[in-house]
């Protein structure tokens, strides 16, 4: 689950990281009021940033500076309601504009292959890191945290010096360790600061001081760990959640949309993966990963069918159920119910084995679902049905 910059910054502050203060505004008038407070506190300029869960807001015109409250309100009016990569902006972060001396990139990511937290840094901050990685991979410094002790002091120092942050080594070490701490404390799989910036701030007596601060923040939380952090659930931005994802979550169905044309309805994550492999082996592309879970009743099956059919790319559906706790007859009833309600007719291939498979077979035959001899055949038929863009839809089922 991705969270908005303002919420990510809150999690950084909770770990003691240096983040310049900000406010969140939802209307141009709120932007103006926030800008007035920022300017009254001594800032020369105000920065306004669209709160959307996509990167590259700067390039898209979602990060703007204003000299006074009137201009801030006008810019707020432009940003709010603006479309950034298909998302409508509903919130704007307002803060004192930083006087940036230099921008860096620093992030903690989960390196699954190494089974460690990986600290990644670059002196080429501000721009998208994917671009740096593609063009100048050497410009990215990678340091794996210790598997049990976490990011050690000397490792953080090594990163600081590698980025040319020797003059800010104390702050850099604290920030690097803070990123890893933020990651661990919240079960995040990404904590990214881009830019981490050296900024110039007035010292009060006419002089200026340089300081290292987190100007942007991007955090992605591990969905599977969210039950351990009930408070973080409040940070879910329902406005930006895909409607299908929201429906799946409400039904307790694990659903991940993919780009293919064959909808898959399966019980159990392992069987779902295998089914996707089978579809690929038969020459097709799965449209989704879907695990209806153990003991699913007919209404859940009908909901799962709705999720699959909401994807206009779906041209055929492969149902693969291993009845253990899940009863085959319940699934068959759900499929029959779902077919009766479905808005568009899509060929369906069903395979049900295990608990109550005979009853499932009887129900499906009565409902005139056809049968196939094996799972391989069922996969092949689903792929063939998906390819046949014309002609009357057919249902094929294999029940053993
Ligand atoms: P992103 O484009 O979505 O990653 O949004 P960022 O918050 O990273 O902003 C993009 C760029 O805008 C940064 O790399 C900075 O160059 C610039 N920027 C952001 N905040 C400020 C600020 O307070 N002052 C100035 N001068 N520039 C800023
Ligand atoms: Mn950024």
Short description:
The two termini are 40 Å apart. It is built from 12 helices and 20 strands.
> Helical content, roughly?
25-40%
Bound molecules: guanosine-5'-diphosphate, manganese (II) ion
> Proportion of β residues?
25-35%
Mean pLDDT over all positions: 92
N→C terminal distance: 40 Å
Largest sheet: 7 strands, antiparallel
Q: Give the class from helix and strand content and strand pairing.
A: alpha+beta
Radius of gyration: 26 Å
**How many helices does DSSP assign?**
12
**Count of extended strands:** 20
Low-confidence stretches: 390-394
Shape: elongated
Task: Sum up the structure in keywords.
alpha+beta; 20 strands; five-stranded parallel β-sheet; binds manganese (II) ion; single chain; seven-stranded antiparallel β-sheet; binds guanosine-5'-diphosphate
Characterise this structure.
- Residues 390-394 have low confidence and may be disordered.
- The strands form 5 sheets. Strands 1, 8, 9, 10, 11, 12 and 13 form a 7-stranded antiparallel sheet that branches. The chain has a 5-stranded parallel sheet with strand order 15-17-18-20-19, with helices on both faces.
- Helices cover 35% and strands 27% of the residues.
- It is α+β, with helices and mostly antiparallel strands.
- Guanosine-5'-diphosphate is lined by residues 47, 49, 55-58, 63, 97-98, 100, 103, 126, 194-195, 215-216.
């Amino acid at each position: 689950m991705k969270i908005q910059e303002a919420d990510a910054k809150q999690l950084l502050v909770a770990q003691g990281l240096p983040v310049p203060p900000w406010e969140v505004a939802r209307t141009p008038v709120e932007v103006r009021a926030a800008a007035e407070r920022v300017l009254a506190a001594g800032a020369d300029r105000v920065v306004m940033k669209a709160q959307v869960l996509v990167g590259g807001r700067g390039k898209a015109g979602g990060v703007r500076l204003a000299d006074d409250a009137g201009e801030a309100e006008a810019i707020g009016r432009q940003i709010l309601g603006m479309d950034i990569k298909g998302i409508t902006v509903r919130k704007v972060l307002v803060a004192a504009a930083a006087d940036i001396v230099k921008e860096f990139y620093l992030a903690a990511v989960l390196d699954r292959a190494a089974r460690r937290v990986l600290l990644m840094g670059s002196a080429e901050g501000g721009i998208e890191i994917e671009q740096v990685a593609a063009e100048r991979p050497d410009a990215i410094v990678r340091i794996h945290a210790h598997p049990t002790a976490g990011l050690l002091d000397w490792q953080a120092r090594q990163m600081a010096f590698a980025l040319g942050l020797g003059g800010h080594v104390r702050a850099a070490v604290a920030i690097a360790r803070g990123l890893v701490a933020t990651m661990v404390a919240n079960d995040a799989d990404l904590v990214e600061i881009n830019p981490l910036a050296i900024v110039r701030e007035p010292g009060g007596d006419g002089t200026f001081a340089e300081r290292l601060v987190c100007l942007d923040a991007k955090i992605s939380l591990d969905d599977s760990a969210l039950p351990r952090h009930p408070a973080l659930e409040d940070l879910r931005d329902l406005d930006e959640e895909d409607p299908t994802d929201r429906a799946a979550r409400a039904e307790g169905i694990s659903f991940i949309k993919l780009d293919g044309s064959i909808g898959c309805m399966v019980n159990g994550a392992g069987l779902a993966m295998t089914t996707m492999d089978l579809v690929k082996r038969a020459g097709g592309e799965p449209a989704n990963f879907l695990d209806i879970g153990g003991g699913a009743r007919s209404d859940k099956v009908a909901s799962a069918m709705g999720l699959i059919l909401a994807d206009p790319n779906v041209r055929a559906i492969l149902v693969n159920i291993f009845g253990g706790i899940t009863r085959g007859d319940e699934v068959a009833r759900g499929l029959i119910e779902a077919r009766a309600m479905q808005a568009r007719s899509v060929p369906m291939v069903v395979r049900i084995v295990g608990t109550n498979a005979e009853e499932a077979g009887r129900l499906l035959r009565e409902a005139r679902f056809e049968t196939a001899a094996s799972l391989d055949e069922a996969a092949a038929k689903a792929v063939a049905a998906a390819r046949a863009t014309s002609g009357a839809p057919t249902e094929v089922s294999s029940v053993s």
